Amino acid sequence: MRHWTALLLTVVGVLFLVIIIARARQGGEDFAQVFQTDGQNQTAAAAGGRTPVVVELFTSEGCSSCPPADELLRRLEQTQPVAGAEVIALEQHVDYWNRLGWADPFSAPEFSARQGDYADYFDNASVYTPQMVVDGQAEFPGSNQAKARAAIIAAARQPKATIALTRAGAARPDGVPLAVRVEKLPALAADDTAEVLLAVTEDALRTDVPRGENAGRTLAHAPVVRSLSSLGQIDRRGGAAFTAQPLVALGAQWQLKNLRAVVFVQEHDSRRVIGATAIRLAEN
Questions:
Q1: Which of 52, 107, 254, 280 could anchor a disulfide with 95, C-beta 3.0 to 4.6 Å?
Q2: Which alpha helices (DSSP H) does the chain contain, by range?
C-alpha cells in the first residue's frame, strides 16, 4: 500500500512539474506572439524613430499577483518590442500593502497618492495592484500584455513635446546637475495646465522577500521610481520654452550606474502625458 501511495505521489509531482514548465514556456511564447511587429511597422519605426511612451506600473512586493506585471514591464523596457515606441518604465511601489506582512522597501505614500489621482480620473471605485497606466490615458491590470501593446501603440501615435535633457556637469557630493528644456508643446486641453515632472529610476533591483504573500521568492524589478518631483507648470498661453536646472540628490543606497533621470510633461486635469525623455545619470 505504501509502495502505491509513494508511486502515486511521484506521478502527481511529475505532472505538476510538467504543468509549471509548460506554463512558463507558454508565457514566453505569449510575449513573443503578442509583441511581434510586422515589416511595415518596423520600416516606419526605422524611418521615423521612436516616440517616448511613459508606462507606469503601480505594484507592491507584498502582492502575490504583482510579479508577472513587474516582469512584463521589465521586458518591455529591456526589449522595446513595440515598433515606433520607446517605452519609458516607471515602476511605483505603493505603501498600502505594507501592513499585510511585508514592508516594501521601495514603497512610498506619494506613489499611493498618485495612483489615487488616477483612480479619480478613471472613475475607479478603488485602487488596485498591479495596475498599469500608459501615458496617463489607458489603465488596466498590469499583466495584460494585449492591452499593454494596444495602449503603447496608440500612445506612440500622439503628438509630443520636444524635451532636451542633459547632464550639466559631473556628479557631485550633493547630487547630479541637469539641464531641462521643453518646447513645441502640443495644444493643451481648454483650461488645463501641464506639469513638468522629474523621476529618478533605478534598475537591476532585486529583493529576497521573507514574509507576506511573496515569502520565499526573489523578485526582480523593472526600473523602480526612487523619487518623483515637480519642476514647474506650463499654461496653455505660454509660448516660450520651459527651462529648469534641477539638482538630483542621490540616496545613500542608490547605485549611480543604474540610475536614470526621466522628465515628462503631464496635463493636470486630463492626466495626458504629452512628452517624455530619459538619460542615464552616470557619465559614459
A1: 107
A2: 2-34, 39-48, 67-79, 109-121, 145-156
d(CA 88, CA 77): 7
Per-residue pLDDT tens over the stretch 188-207: 888 899 999 999 999 999 99
Q: Using alpha carbons, list the distances in angstroms from residue 168 to 245, 258, 260, 262.
A: 8, 19, 14, 15
State the number of CA atoms in the 13 A half-sphere of 157 facing the CB. 8
Q: Could you give the CA distance from residue 67 to residue 60 in angstroms, rounded to a whole number?
A: 9
- What CATH homologous superfamily does 50-280 map to? Immunoglobulins (2.60.40.10)
**Angle, nearest 10°, between helix axes 67-79 and 145-156?**
40
DSSP letter for 224, please. E
pTM of the model: 0.86
Burial of 274 (0-12, 13-18, 19+ CB in 10 A): buried
What SS3 state is found at 210? coil
String of DSSP letters for 41-106: HHHHHHHH--EEEEEEEEE-TT-TTSHHHHHHHHHHHHH--STTEEEEEEEEE-STTGGGT---TT
